[in-house]
Amino acid sequence: MLLLRIIHEGGDIKLLRHHNISFREIGEMVETSIDEGLLTNSDDIITLTDQGKGFLDSNIGIIKERDKSKWIELDMKNKIRKLDKDEVFLPAQNALSFLK
């Protein structure tokens, strides 16, 4: 699904790499999608077929998150307890992972 959306929008496959998919796996996904008739490869340009566009349109809800509260994941490992008004929190530099 994500591969089809990236190709349709002319995006970058680095998004797939961000999801820990290797270049070899991406190549295999492209070949499988071509074999299934979702993509076409002409003049070294990979595009969606009409069947691929239909598949993407009918399944776009799978990859497009509508609930804005789920757009950013909570970072529970760095959450600190609620502090009083007069209390100041000074973490050690190695205590929080985002400071590393």
Q: What's the helix-strand series? A: HHHEEH
Helix content: 40-55%
Q: Distance N terminus to C terminus?
A: 35 Å
Report the total helices: 4
What does this structure look like?
By secondary structure, this protein is mainly alpha-helical. The protein contains four helices and two strands; from the N terminus they run H-H-H-E-E-H. The protein has helices spanning 2-9, 14-18, 23-35, 50-63; strands spanning 39-42, 45-48. The protein has a two-stranded antiparallel ribbon with strand order 1-2. Helix 1 crosses helix 4 (50-63). The radius of gyration is 21 Å and the shape is elongated. The protein starts with a helix and ends in a 37-residue tail after the last helix. The relative contact order is 0.12. The mean pLDDT is 82.
In short:
The protein has 100 residues and is mainly α.
Give short descriptive properties of this protein.
mainly alpha; 8% strand; 100 residues; 2 strands; two-stranded antiparallel sheet; elongated
Task: Please give the structural blueprint.
Elements: H1 2-9, H2 14-18, H3 23-35, E1 39-42, E2 45-48, H4 50-63
Helix pairs in contact: 1-4
